[in-house]
C-alpha cells in the first residue's frame, strides 16, 4: 500500500484533514447544495463521541483519512478522503476494506454512507464495492452494504481483505 500506514486521528491533524476535505469536497457540496463547505460541518462528525477517525500517512504526511460512527447494528461512514495526488492507487479501496473489517468484527450487519448525487465518481466507486442506493434525501443518496453474518451472497470482509 505505497508504504502508508494508519493511525488514530489527533487534534493536531485537524488542519490537514480540513484542507483535504475542502480540496476534495468544496465543489461537490457547492454543486449539490449551492452552499460553501464549512469547517464546522466537518468538525461536527469528526468530534462526535461515537466517531472513530483514522488518518493514513506516508512519510509523515497525511494523505487520507476516514471517519465512521459506530451505531447499534451498523456503521455509518461520515467521510472518506484521499489526497488527489494519491487517488487511483488503491488507497480508497484499502480504507473501505478496513472499514468493512471494523464493522464485521464488531458484529455489525451493514455499513451506510451518504453521497451527493452530483458525485458520480464516488457513487461508481461505492457501487463497485457492493453498496446500493436505498433512499434519497434531497441531493443525497443513502447507500448501504449488507455484511454477511453467515448467509450467502454478501462479502465477508475477513475472507477477502487483510488488515492494513
Task: Outline the structure in words.
The structure is a single chain. With 164 residues, the chain is an alpha+beta fold. It has one domain (5-160): Gcn5-related N-acetyltransferase (GNAT) (Aminopeptidase). It has five helices and seven strands; from the N terminus they run βααβββαβαββα. Strands 1-2-3-4-5-7-6 form a seven-stranded mixed sheet, with helices on both faces. The longest helix is centred in the N-terminal third of the chain and has 20 residues, at 14-33. The termini are close together.
Number of helices: 5
CATH structural architecture: 3-Layer(aba) Sandwich
The first-level CATH class name: Alpha Beta
Topology as H/E string?
A: EHHEEEHEHEEH
Estimate the global geometry from the Cα principal axes: globular
The CATH topology annotation reads as: Aminopeptidase
- Give the CATH H-level superfamily: Gcn5-related N-acetyltransferase (GNAT)
Number of strands: 7
Assembly category: single chain
**Largest beta sheet, briefly?**
7 strands, mixed
